[in-house]
Amino acid sequence: ACRQLVYGDPHHLDGVRILGVDEHVWKHTRKPGQASNLVTILVDLTPLVDGRGPARLLDMRPGRSADVLSGWLKERDPSFREQIQVVTMDGFTGYATAVEEQLPQADKVMDPFHVVHLAADKLTSCRQRLQRETTGRRGRKDDPLYKHRRTLLTRTNYLTERQKHRLEMLWATDDDYVALEVTWLLYQDMIAAYAHPKKSEGKKLMKRIIHTLRKGLPKGLEELAQLGRTLWRRRKDVLAYFDIGASNGPVEAINGRLEHLRGIALGFKNLNHYILRSLIHSGQLQEKINAL
């Protein structure tokens, strides 16, 4: 019955204008030779953006690649593909490639969470590199860089006076930490751009960050240079958030609910069963099933 409600209902995909795409781990065990434990989930964000209701899970497909998303879109009617105006996603280039090929008219939005997460990864990489260069080993609990690893990732507004003092002491500890301080400042600027109450001003701040990283950076800022190349390549998708406002937040929320569902069930062995249970759980099919 559930399969018929989804795949046999010609109106299941009606009105989808804003599509969210993300990967999801459907099982945490994978033996050699077995298929990928990742699936691509597709979520309708239109009701949430319009204020009519929550986001809903549309479908799940095995694998995580451009071919997986492209194949799903090819199977849909041309009228469905033409009505898609916005696609939100993470930084995975495979999804971006599929959207460019199959939905050339749609705006791609790179989710703020994943953009900030990229910067956080570069901040952590910079800290780890300086740790190895200054001590010749990995961090230990009494090493300044290792001790403050979580404080470095905390948003400035949430830092206590004690934490602020610790960071000031860290910057004064060693001149070799200048690269980390510069990376940390840019990480905080990126968070501030997304948090700005005026989206237009936030967009200006983000543009400034992208163009700053695009310019020739001094030696010793390798992590920022890598981040700059990524942001420049995806700048249109990054800046689109400030104009459109849609994000992958609701998609991540559904992703979390599916993790909880799998935990309650103590795991699944059959992917088809898992997809159907997920659609019942997060695809707003419960009322339709009860009406059968």
From TrEMBL:
Coiled coil: none annotated. Residues 19-277 form the Transposase IS204/IS1001/IS1096/IS1165 DDE domain. InterPro entries: Transpos_ISL3, Transposase_DDE. It comes from the Bacteria. It holds the Pfam family DDE_Tnp_ISL3. NCBIfam families: transpos_ISL3. This is ISL3 family transposase. The lineage of its organism: Bacteria, Bacillati, Actinomycetota, Actinomycetes, Mycobacteriales.
